[in-house]
Structures are given as structure tokens and as C-alpha cells.
Predict the structure.
Amino acid sequence: MVPRKGKRPVVPQSREVLGLVVLKIAWIAGKAHKGRVFRGLTSAGKRSRGLLNKGKGAEKVRPSIRAHRGRGK
């Protein structure tokens, strides 16, 4: 039986960290995600390349700015 404090059960911090956090970020350790930073695949990388823009004016951003001779940004 887990002791309760108010609405939620009291769970030791170590078990909470080991269970939830590891499961949430376990995908990042896979082979396909190695070097995401260097390929510009993080949120900050996409933002700097203009890939968060959609619609009018964003046609020359994809697949890359270099592919459209630097006219994207």
C-alpha cells in the first residue's frame, strides 16, 4: 500500500525520476537520433533555417535555403 498525502500518493523521488523521465526521453538514445544538432533537426535548428514558417512567403525555404539559391530567408 502506498501512503497518501492529500489526493496523490506519496512516491519517492528516485522512483518517479527513474520511471517517467527515462521513458519520456528514451527515444533520443536511438541510432537515428545521433547528431541531430549537427543536421539542424532540433527545434532551434529548424527555427534558424526558417522551417517553422508555413504559407505565403515560405515556398523557397524547403527543402533547404541552399536548394533555392539563398532566396529563402
